[in-house]
Structure formats: C-alpha cells, structure tokens
Design a protein that fits this description.
Helices cover 77% and strands 0% of the residues. By secondary structure, it is mainly alpha-helical. It has two domains: 66 residues, Homeodomain-like (Arc Repressor Mutant, subunit A, Orthogonal Bundle), CATH 1.10.10.60; 144 residues, Tetracycline Repressor, domain 2 (Orthogonal Bundle), CATH 1.10.357.10. The longest helix is centred in the N-terminal third of the chain and has 39 residues. It is elongated, with a radius of gyration of 22 Å. Keywords: DNA-binding. This is TetR family transcriptional regulator. It comes from Streptomyces cellostaticus.
Length: 217
C-alpha cells in the first residue's frame, strides 16, 4: 500500500502544477499582447507579433488562445474587473467638509493611476478599432461608471433634476477621457502637468454646480 501511495502523490500534484504553469503562461501572453496592442493598435497586431514579444512560438500561443480577438477579450475582461475595483474606491461618498479640489483630485489620481499603469485599457476600450467581442463589456462598464458618478453628483446637487445630473455625469466623464488621451501621450513632468489641467477643468466646471455643498480651499 505504501508503494502505491508514494506513486500516486506526484500524480495528484501534477494537475495543480500544470494549472499553475498554464496561468503563468497566460499572464505572460497577456502582458505581451498589452505591449503589442499599445504599440501597433489592435487591428495591426498579429498573433505572431504577440508570440514574438512573449518569447514563445506561435504554436505555444495557440495552445491557450485561438486568435488575437480571444486574447483581447481575456485581457479586456481582466482589466474591466480591475477598473471596477478602482472606480469603487475613486467614487466613494465624499464628506461634506472635503474641499472640492481635494475630492476631484483624489478621484482623478486614482483613475489616472490605473490608466497609466494599464495603458492598453485605453487602447482597447477607446481606440477606433475596438474588438467586437469586448464592446459589450465596455458598454456595461461605461453605463455603470456613469451611474456611479450620477449617484455621487446627486448628493452634491440636491436641487438638480435627474436629467441635469445625468448630463453633468456624462460631461465629467467626457472631460476625463479627453484629458486621459493627452496624459497618456506624455511622460514625466509634462504628464503630471496634464493631470493637473484635467483636475482644474473639472473643478471649474463643477464649482458653480456644487456651490457650497463641499468645502472650498
């Protein structure tokens, strides 16, 4: 009995080891795809380029993904999950005594940190050649994000109509997206300057709408 048990133990561990190796390989391929999508765009990217960036053969890539759209969908789904966590923190309720500049700055910083750490998110979700398979995920994320912004604004604009709150939420998100494209196009001190410009624009836009609902510095 002891001999049989000794032989079985490694076999029982093999599926877990294979699964761990597979997860590492998938992570490696997704990281490579992110780099390629950012560099060339989705349409111009190829599975060969992704495999080359990952340092593996195309055959190895096809063991995990049938085509580049499947890679983009997997990458997009993982990023959407992370983004939901990021905006959950960024759009948390704001204490009434919080200065408007501080509230806006904290939210923008959290969103910018995510997008600058994962520039492929913008490349996939907002590029002109968004893969069809992740369009639905993007639309759901956008709708949820607008809803969270509406909820936050509703507490700061109690006299506003629902239509006004929705419009304001869309404008805020539009300002952020436009600024994000500029931020991602720059590095270092210049990037930081563009981030500050986005904050300033949002504060100037929201200031007259919020009034004294939040403290002002």
């Amino acid at each position: 009995m002891s001999d049989t048990s000794e032989k079985e133990r490694p076999e029982k561990g093999q599926p877990r080891r294979r699964q761990a190796r597979g997860e590492r390989r998938i992570a490696q391929l997704l990281a490579a795809a992110a780099q390629v999508f950012c560099t060339t765009g989705y349409t111009a990217a190829s599975t060969n380029a992704i495999a080359r960036e990952a340092g593996v053969s195309p055959g190895t890539l096809y063991q995990f993904f049938p085509n580049k759209e499947a890679i983009a969908i997997e990458l997009g789904e993982r990023l959407v999950h992370e983004m939901r966590e990021a905006y959950g923190e960024a759009l948390a309720p704001v204490a009434p005594a919080t200065p408007l500049e501080e509230a806006v700055g904290a939210a923008v910083d959290r969103f910018m940190a995510f997008n600058t750490e994962h520039p492929v998110f913008f490349a996939l979700m907002h590029g002109p050649d968004m893969p069809g398979g992740i369009t639905e995920a993007h639309d759901q994320l956008h709708a949820t994000l607008v809803g969270r912004i509406e909820g936050l604004l509703a507490s700061l604009m109690p006299g506003a109509s629902p239509a006004d709150v929705t419009r304001t939420a869309h404008v805020c998100l539009g300002i952020y997206k436009a600024g994000l494209e500029l931020v991602l196009a720059h590095e270092g001190a210049e990037r930081a300057a563009y981030v500050q410009e986005v904050k300033d624009v949002l504060v100037r836009y929201l200031g007259p709408l919020v009034g004294d609902r939040l403290g002002r510095t």
